[in-house]
Specification:
With about 425 residues, the chain is α/β, with parallel strands linked by helices. It has helices at about 50-55, 75-90, 120, 140-150, 190-200, 235-240, 345-360, 365-375, 380-395; strands spanning about 5-10, 60-65, 95-100, 150-155, 160-165, 210, 250, 260, 270-275, 290-300, 310-320, 325, 335-340, 365, 395-400, 405-410. It is built from 9 helices and 16 strands. Strands 1, 2, 3, 10, 11, 12 and 13 form a 7-stranded mixed beta sheet that branches. It has a 6-stranded mixed beta sheet with strand order 4-5-6-7-9-8. The chain has a 3-stranded antiparallel beta sheet with strand order 14-16-15. The protein starts with 5 loop residues before the first strand and ends with a strand.
């Protein structure tokens, strides 16, 4: 029996499937459709259901924010989508939901006998989602996605609205009027699409609200690249805030895992920049981004009924050639455990933690006791938690960490 008070989502992004030898440094990713490389140490997709079951996690949806195959290779796309469907089945999820990435649309016209999106439209189960509206397999939501470049799907059982957005809608069809085409490098949401989204969202009033797209909603703080964020993303962010809800935005694209808020305002969307499950990554600001997957649990009972806050936990794993999946560390990705949605005053929280440590002196104050006093602390992002704990340490309070770099004890020393 599924707990409808919690929505569990498994995010597997940027597969970049190909048919070459993944041991070659010239290949785009570690995921090859060649069956010779199907073991857990060579194929990042092989052991995902095992790691989810090992940690006793439920999965309701499997989300993939784009780039199934590399350079829109139709055979690789098909196999990658089928592998993700197997993961859906093996984890017990009810839905596989995707969206288009720049590598999913044949914007380079490598396969001119087809239109740029036809390989995706031929996928089974139906892409981007196979859920029905009027009758089984009616394809209405899929048709709306392709005709309007977005689709809004209500999920009454989770009091949830999901927007699946095609930020690659212009790929293969349009290019800059001056200079070399850059359409295949960036994402775009047209003014017409933005207004259509705004109009449709006015008819939805749900507690949980999620957007799935490929390109970055706003500039990634680690990436000095003007093409990494979607044109129109700033307006989309404002429209989302105008609904009076706090949205969770999930995207892929640049393979650098990150969790943040779109801006500093109270209703700023929570933005998960998902790591790539398989793509080769390169140093960014002296850090090597890891291949990661993410499990999100959104706790509806803990959230305000108005939808003005979204609270959840994220569990992440890192994959490496030869060793397979392991619990993530903080080196180049999201940590094993973190949260989102809780944004208290940093000074007030520092003072509360220091007071708790002083009260426990000369003993230590366990972090588990801190969480029992303020359960919402589990919903701090890893960056916010790190900054608050740094402020705590500056007062002379000692913070002991566990092997995942999560706080374990607080100890006041005069």
């Amino acid at each position: 029996m599924r707990d409808k008070n919690v929505l569990n989502v498994l995010v597997i992004s940027d597969v970049h499937a190909h048919s070459q030898d993944p041991r070659s440094s010239q290949t785009p990713s570690f995921y090859s459709t060649n069956s010779l490389f199907s073991d857990a140490g060579s194929n990042p997709l092989t052991d995902i259901p095992t790691i989810i079951k090992k940690h006793g996690l439920a999965v309701d949806w499997v989300l993939t924010p784009g780039d199934l195959g590399d350079r829109a290779d139709p055979t690789s796309q098909k196999i990658a989508w089928e592998e993700l469907e197997k993961i859906r089945q093996q984890t017990g999820a009810t839905l596989l939901i995707g969206t288009t990435g720049n590598h999913d649309i044949d914007s380079r016209r490598n396969f001119p006998e087809f239109d740029p999106k036809s390989a995706l439209q031929a996928l089974k189960p139906m892409f981007p989602v196979s859920c029905s509206l009027f009758e089984e397999n009616d394809g209405v939501y899929s048709d709306r996605f392709w005709s309007r470049n977005f689709v809004v799907i209500p999920f009454v059982e989770y009091d949830c609205t999901l927007v699946v957005l095609n930020s690659s809608a212009f790929h293969g069809y349009a290019s800059d009027t001056k200079g070399p085409s850059r359409e295949h490098l960036r994402g775009k949401i047209s003014p017409l699409t933005l207004e259509a989204i705004k109009k449709e969202l006015a008819g939805h009033n749900t507690r949980l609200n999620i957007v799935l797209l490929h390109h970055h909603l706003s500039k990634h703080p680690w990436i000095e690249d003007s093409d990494s964020f979607v044109i129109g993303g700033d307006k989309l962010s404002e429209y989302l805030k105008e609904t009076g809800k706090q949205w969770l935005v999930i995207h892929g694209h640049q393979h650098v895992p990150h969790l943040s808020y779109a801006d500093g305002t109270p209703l700023a969307p929570v933005v998960l920049s998902a790591g790539s499950v398989a793509a080769r990554t390169y140093d960014v600001r002296g850090v090597h981004p890891r291949n990661q997957i993410h499990h999100i649990s959104v706790h509806l009972d803990d959230m305000d009924p108005s939808g003005a806050e979204v609270l959840g936990n994220i569990t992440s794993w890192t994959w490496a050639v030869g060793s397979g999946w392991r619990e993530a560390s903080v080196d180049g990705g999201l940590p094993f455990k973190c949260g989102f949605g809780y944004r208290p005053s940093a000074i007030e929280l520092r003072n509360k933690l220091v007071t708790a440590a002083k009260t426990a002196a000369p003993g230590v104050h366990r972090w588990a006791n801190v969480l029992s006093m303020d359960p919402k602390l589990q919903f701090l992002t890893s960056d916010d938690l790190a900054q608050v704990l740094s402020m705590v340490q500056q007062t002379g309070t000692v913070v002991d960490f566990d092997r995942h770099q999560l706080p374990e004890h607080l100890e006041w020393r005069e």
